[in-house]
Design brief:
422 residues, alpha/beta, Aspartate Aminotransferase, domain 1, Aspartate Aminotransferase, domain 2, 7-stranded mixed β-sheet, 3-stranded antiparallel β-sheet, 14 helices, 16 strands, 15% strand, binds pyridoxal-5'-phosphate
């Protein structure tokens, strides 16, 4: 990936031109939400300007809204690797969708049933399941981690599986340390004991290609605002589960797919924006859009091929940046890195790192960096099961996330700023 390519990409994101305190803004806060390209902003405003309406009316804006929604279901289906756009549901955010899903699935559990959650989760794929299990009298089993590299203890996971296991809730990757989990193997283990697998792909989505068929999961959740789109949650499930499990529904609401798992009026503008975010990513893989915000000419097959190419590019570019970051941080005696820091294990991590500093609490370091225009997070960012396990509450860690619009020069500037915190 050339510097020219990154500069051309950066021009598509209006926020990347911002400055703060006379310093160029450096957005290393992608794990908490990425910036959005102009095409996404245009899609949202175009929907609101031209077609704003509710679904189900006989008049033109309502009919156009149906078309916008249909195009978005298809684009997101392509993004997730499913042929069935009706199995994609939208909602306010991943957490709300997962509370709805967990409550609905839990109605099928009985006393003696068991579910498995891991200590590497964001709390949104942890607490909803624990709460639902408690309400049903099901038992919760916990997969521990290896503290030294913040990876899942897969032996522990294997030892917890049995014919009593009803469900495994697991993330593709940690939003704190960037640890990438062997998701296909975990979903396979779930299948072998007849358990459902619910995968949190929120942190994974901007970095690598999601493919629900390859993952072999039963449900997958993500959020468009982490992959260059607006604030919106996404749920995918296998058709048979979405049809057979009963969601909490109002009587007049659609009980058939794709509306079955969507509650209340949706943010149509955000859904339009999510489609534009997927198409933006497709352009990184060579797709050309005749009308970026509401393109109907990009076939599903072309979009998928372009997304494959885009994520190959993204992955190789981000990998260079994150190892530049890790190597730089590793050389500083006042910095402790949590998670995988060995280049030989690059395939086991995503471009997100968490550190603690000998001299400063994470919040104080984040404040000082913020004064120079660096956007980085402090605390637990809701990866509370992990920070509790590491004994890092209440201060947590400083988290630095790289996405494809960051540059090597930004990483250098950031490293210099961290050096000066010693
Ligand atoms: C890994 C992970 N899972 C789930 C969530 C929750 O997503 P949402 O904000 O859409 O509820 C987040 C948000 O930070 C996350 O990073």
């Amino acid at each position: 990936m050339s510097d020219a390519w990154v500069s051309s990409v950066r021009k598509l994101f209006p926020a990347l031109a911002r400055t703060f305190n006379d310093c160029p803004a450096v957005f290393l806060d992608g794990p908490a939400g990425t910036q959005v390209p102009e095409v996404v902003i245009q899609a949202i405003s175009r929907y609101l300007r031209e077609s704003n309406a509710n679904l189900g009316g006989t008049f033109f804006t309502s009919c156009e809204t149906v078309e916008w929604m249909r195009a978005a279901h298809q684009a997101v289906a392509d993004f997730l690797g499913t042929d069935d756009p009706d199995t994609v549901a939208f909602g306010p955010n991943m957490t709300t969708l997962n509370f709805a899903l967990s409550r609905a699935i839990a109605r099928t559990w009985r006393k003696g049933d068991e579910i498995i959650v891991t200590r590497l989760e964001h709390d949104s794929n942890f607490t909803p399941w624990i709460t639902a299990a408690r309400e049903q009298g099901a038992r919760v089993r916990y997969v521990d981690i290896h503290v030294e590299d913040c990876t899942l203890d897969l032996e522990c996971l294997r030892s917890l599986l049995s014919d009593r296991t009803r469900l495994i809730a697991v993330g593709c990757a940690s939003n704190a340390t960037g640890t990438r989990n062997p998701i296909e193997a975990i979903c396979q283990s779930a299948r072998e004991v007849g358990a459902l697998s619910v995968v949190d792909a929120v942190h994974f989505a901007p970095h690598e290609r999601i493919d629900v068929r390859r993952f072999g999961c039963d449900f997958l959740l993500c959020s468009a605002y982490k992959f260059f789109g607006p604030h919106l949650g996404i749920l995918w499930g296998r058709r048979q589960h979405l049809e057979n499990i009963t969601p909490y529904k109002l009587r007049p609401a659609p009980h058939a797919l794709p509306g079955r798992w969507m509650t209340g009026t949706q943010s149509h503008e955000a859904i339009a924006g999510a489609k534009a975010a997927v198409d933006y990513l497709a352009t990184l893989g060579g797709a050309t859009l005749s009308c970026p915000e509401k393109d109907l000419s990009l076939s599903s097959a072309d979009r998928r091929t372009a997304l494959d190419a885009a994520f190959e590019r993204i992955q190789s570019y981000e990998s260079q940046l994150i190892w530049q970051m890790i190597d730089g941080l590793k050389s500083m005696p006042h910095v402790k890195l949590w998670g995988i820091t060995d280049r030989a294990r690059a395939s086991e991590r995503l471009p997100t790192v968490a550190v603690t500093l000998a001299c400063l609490k994470p919040i104080e370091a984040a404040r000082r960096l913020a004064a120079q225009g660096f956007c980085v997070w402090h605390g637990n960012y809701y990866a509370l099961p992990l920070t509790e396990r590491l004994g890092l509450e209440p201060d947590g860690m400083l988290r630095i996330g790289v996405v494809h619009y960051n540059t090597s020069e930004e990483v250098d500037r950031f490293l210099t700023a961290v050096e000066q915190l010693s």
